[in-house]
Amino acid sequence: MDRDTIFSVVKKHIVNAVDDVEEATIDPQKSMADYGASSLDIVSVVSSSMRELKIKIPRTELKNVSTIDGLVDLFEKSAS
């Protein structure tokens, strides 16, 4: 699975979970909190993305992720 596909899935779930965010405006160097995502929104984005991508990542690995790009990196590593 390539990085662009993973990023598209994550962006789609951010748009679905967080009000007033458009897919085209999402900067991978920012955190989801920068877009107004609550902790519940973040959990929703991560779990929905993992379900769609058919990957599982331990919570201990997720706690060190601070940006959207970091999340995509982690998903990409798990998908390969």
Task: Please explain how this structure is put together.
The chain is mainly alpha-helical and 80 residues long. The chain has one domain (3-79): Non-ribosomal Peptide Synthetase Peptidyl Carrier Protein, Chain A. It is built from four helices and no strands. The chain has helices at 3-17, 39-53, 59-62, 68-79. The longest helix is centred in the first third of the chain and has 15 residues, at 3-17. The termini are close together.
* C-alpha end-to-end distance: 7 Å
The name CATH uses for the topology is Non-ribosomal Peptide Synthetase Peptidyl Carrier Protein, Chain A
**Number of structurally distinct domains:** 1
CATH architecture grouping: Orthogonal Bundle
Binned strand content? under 5%
How would you state the average pLDDT, rounded? 95
Tell me the total number of β-strands: 0
Sheet of most strands:
none
- The structural class is mainly alpha
Order of helices and strands: HHHH
CATH class category name: Mainly Alpha
**How many alpha or pi helices?**
4
Helical percentage: 55-70%
CATH superfamily: ACP-like
Q: What are the segments in which pLDDT stays under 50 over at least 5 consecutive residues?
A: none
